[in-house]
Amino acid sequence: MADAGNPAMVSRPRYRTLRILSVVAVSGLLLAVVIFFGVGRWLVVEDPLVKARAIVVLSGAMPLRAIEAAKLYREGYAPEIWLTHSSEPGEMLEEMGIPFAGEDHYNSLVLIHEGVPAEAIHVLEPPIVNTVDEIKAAAAALAREKDGMVIFVTTKTHTRRVGLLWRRLAPGQGRAIVRAAGGDPFDPRHWWRTTSDALDVVREVLGLLNAWAGLPLRPAH
């Protein structure tokens, strides 16, 4: 009972608790800083190049991805280039009586400009809405080939998610190589300096979380 009134004895447990909380807070802050500065580099994952059945140009970032695909074609990594066909905004514009050729049309023109013959360019079906649809379309086309392989061409921040989606959506359906467009200006070491890079990082992190969770979030139609 004599120790109960001793201020020093009473304050020791409280002091230890404060020290533990401080260490946890500092550790959490350091971890957050490491994640913040490292997430840009973590998102960029490329596979070694080998010859494949086809090069798949994922939609978006036109014309960077098509230019990279043409470069890989000229270097002999695949005999064909596959494009995907987005249903939007073509359907909405059609209802308004406004013609819209579609991104695959312009990607085809870019590929031909870069030296790819028209007969080597093929548009996959069915129309796609997002990357999940593109992965499924490529996997369906590759399923006709025994031990097939494709090279996906995308932008830097998108590479990790493309690889993850292939493993989740097309297990046992051949192999996918993921490559980033060489002309992509994304700076993985200083991604927070521009709004475009920051938006790309946020979008990809959210997309990866959705993929890890089993794709509970679906695109709006």
Summarize the structure.
By secondary structure, the protein is of the alpha/beta class. The protein has helices at residues 7-43, 64-74, 90-95, 103-113, 131-142, 159-169, 195-212, and strands at 54-57, 81-83, 121-123, 149-154, 175-180. It has a single domain (54-212), classed as HUPs (Rossmann fold).
What's the main sheet like? 5 strands, parallel
What share of the residues does DSSP label as strand, in percent? 5-15%
How many beta-strand elements? 5
Briefly note the structural class of the backbone: alpha/beta
| CATH architectural category | 3-Layer(aba) Sandwich
What is the first-to-last residue Cα distance? 72 Å
Oligomer: single chain
Q: What features would you describe in this structure?
A:
- The chain is of the alpha/beta class and 221 residues long.
- It has one domain (54-212): Rossmann fold (3-Layer(aba) Sandwich).
- It is 48% helix and 10% strand.
- It contains seven helices and five strands.
- It has helices at residues 7-43, 64-74, 90-95, 103-113, 131-142, 159-169, 195-212; strands at 54-57, 81-83, 121-123, 149-154, 175-180.
- Strands 3-2-1-4-5 form a five-stranded parallel β-sheet, sandwiched between helices.
- Helix 5 (131-142) crosses helix 6.
- It is elongated.
